[in-house]
Each structure stands twice: as C-alpha cells, then as structure tokens.
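User: quick one, sequence for these tokens?
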C-alpha cells in the first residue's frame, strides 16, 4: 500500500524507523505545515517527495493511505479531508478530541467504504497477543479484576525542552501538556482491555491537575493525573491510572480466579509476560515475592508468541508502523481492519470519559460499542 505522511514532527521519526520492517508499505512522500522541518525530515530519512501543501498530497493519485501524525488538535480536519479525497487514513491518537468529530469521521469512512484506524497498535504486539492467548486458554480462570498503570514520571523535571527526535524536532511540550497524558496514553491499555474483555459498559473517573506550573506557558490547564474504574461487557472491572507525576510504571495485572497474568510494560513489544498461580503456594508467593523467587515459587515467565519480531538492535522499540501494515493487509485481503473505525471510536469515547468525567466518581454509561477483533494469525 502506498502511503503519505502528514506531520513530520517528533513522533514521525519513530514511524520511519519501523516502516522498513513492513515491505508491503511504500512511502510516497511527506508534508508538514513547517516546510523547512519537512525538508529536514525528508533529507534525514531519504524521502524523495516533499509536498508543499496538503492539497497537493491529497491530489496525488498514487497515495492510497494518509498517515496523520499531526498534533491532536489537527487530527479531525486533516483526517476528514483525506477521507473526502478517497484516501484510507491511519491516525495517531486520539482519533479526535471531541466525540462528535470522531463520530463524523467514522460515518464518512463507512459511507465511502474506506479504512480508518487509530493508534496505538500495541495490542498487535507479541506481549499483548501472548497475554490474550493465555486468557483464551483460561490459564488463570475467569478474570474479575485488572490493575493497570500508565505513569511516566515527573516529565517537567526531566528537562523535556532538550528532547529532540532523530531528525531534530523538539518534543512538543506545550501541546503535550495541553492535550494531557490521559488523551495521549490511555489508549495503550484500553485497546488491550477492549480486545480481551469486550467493549466498556460503564466508566467512573476522577482527574485533576497536580502540577500547574511545568516550566512552559500553556493556554489551558489539562489534567496530568486521572484514575478510572471501567466495567467491561464480560463483567471484568479494571482500574486504570495515568499521570506524568508518579514514578514510571507501565505495569498491568490481570487477576483471575486461578492465577494472575502480568507484564511490566505496554510500550515494549517483547516485554515478558508472567503467570502466577493462586493456589496455596501461589498465594504465599504473592505475599512474599522475593522469598518465593529464591525457593523457585515465583511466577512462570511465558514464552512469547513468535510474531514478526525485531532485529537485535531494535528489540525494545515499539513497532508503531504495525497498525498501518495491518490496514494494508486488510485492504489487500478485502477484510475489515482489526483496528476498525468502530474500535477506534469506542476507545475514543472511553478515553474522553476518563479525562472529562461529567461528575467525579459517578459512572457514565458508554454509548458506543464495537465488534470483537481477531487475534493475529501467528497468535491463534
């Protein structure tokens, strides 16, 4: 599938580093509203075509799919224009910052028979797929409770003003703080949970601003901490926490009647998956994990399913291009994408419900739903 990228800022370099793993994707060209930035990006990555305007990109008949890597505030308008031009779209998260906008995008895509998908695509990774298969095999019995963390540490104390991408773009501090860590990161685990346990039914949340002064002037204060309790169609309940204040923690625990599955990271495609028993010895091991490991009673590390894999030098790199590749395969095979428009819309609604509770702690019933998604072929 021939693709073009709009938005050559900080995140775009991660896509260019992973595109070579997917030979079915051909990058035709790139475009950015900052012309010199697009030129610098193209030189660094040896991209032959730089479009001067977005209209020029959309008019290129070679382009089958637009990859929207702009700031979240631009997602709706640029994705809408691409769909109306007859292009498939893969968008960075969130699909849109307002639910009505997201619904409109899905309606346009469906009415025109176009594919529309949204990052993140980590649910297609080896760690998530290994965990999911263990659930389908009922290795830990019925899962009633999930604890998941997406804490990134005190970003404002890490000198983010010095961060630069591979091609030299600065980390967009102001935009990141104004959009908020929930909108930026909730999808990483919400996508897993919806795949594992079905659509969310109810969401109760609390969000607030812990550190209003982060060293950069912003136009609006947005929550930098949120905690949510989510009830899924299967009956499973998850507690999901986000912050850019608490110490770094991306762990998740799926707690079942007979055991517990856990991982310490959702950004690493080959992060280990551990299975602990909840029998007599297993429960003792839960209370004394260090002692349990010393005597061989700790959790079992499951072998990761053999997915597409990564080269030795890139073992810990998130393959952000895998979602685009999955879309390309769906188009070629004339089937729905795993990351479907309705899946993206539902994740968008849950994310917005967490960031903007109508009333803190009061459950909100979700209005959207989505069909189950299929495991990856190598994970069945």
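Assistant:
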């Amino acid at each position: 599938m021939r693709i073009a990228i709009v938005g050559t800022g900080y995140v775009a370099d991660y896509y260019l580093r992973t595109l070579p793993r997917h030979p079915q994707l051909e990058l035709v060209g790139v475009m950015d509203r900052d012309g010199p930035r697009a030129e610098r990006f193209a030189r660094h990555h040896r991209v032959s075509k730089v479009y001067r305007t977005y209209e020029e990109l959309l008019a290129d008949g070679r382009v089958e799919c637009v990859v929207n890597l702009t700031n979240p505030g631009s997602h709706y308008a640029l994705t809408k224009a691409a769909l109306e031009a007859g292009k498939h779209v893969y968008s960075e998260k969130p699909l849109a910052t307002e639910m009505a906008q997201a619904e409109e995008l899905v309606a346009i895509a469906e009415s025109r028979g176009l594919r529309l998908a949204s990052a993140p695509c980590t649910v297609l990774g080896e760690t998530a797929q290994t965990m999911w298969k263990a659930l389908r095999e009922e290795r830990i019995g019925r899962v009633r409770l999930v604890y998941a963390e997406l804490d990134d540490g005190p970003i404002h104390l890490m000198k983010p003003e010095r961060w630069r991408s591979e091609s030299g773009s600065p980390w967009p501090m102001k935009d990141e703080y104004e959009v908020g860590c929930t909108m930026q990161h909730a999808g990483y685990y919400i996508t897993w949970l919806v795949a594992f346990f079905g659509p969310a039914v109810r969401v109760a949340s609390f969000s607030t601003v812990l550190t209003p002064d982060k060293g950069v002037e912003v136009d609006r204060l947005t929550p930098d901490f949120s905690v949510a309790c989510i009830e899924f169609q299967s009956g499973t309940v998850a507690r999901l926490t986000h912050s850019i204040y608490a110490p770094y923690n991306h762990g998740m625990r799926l707690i079942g009647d007979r055991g517990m599955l856990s991982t310490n990271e959702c950004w690493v495609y080959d992060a280990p998956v551990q299975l602990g028993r909840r029998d007599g010895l297993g429960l003792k091991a839960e209370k004394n994990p260090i002692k349990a490991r010393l005597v061989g009673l700790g959790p079992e590390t499951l072998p990761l399913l053999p997915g597409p894999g990564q080269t030795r030098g890139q073992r810990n790199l998130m393959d952000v291009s895998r979602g685009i590749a999955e879309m390309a395969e769906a188009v070629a095979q004339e089937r729905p994408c795993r990351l479907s428009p309705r899946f993206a819309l539902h994740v968008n609604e849950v994310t917005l419900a967490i960031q903007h509770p109508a009333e803190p702690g009061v459950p909100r019933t979700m209005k959207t739903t989505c069909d189950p998604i299929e495991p990856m072929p190598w994970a069945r």
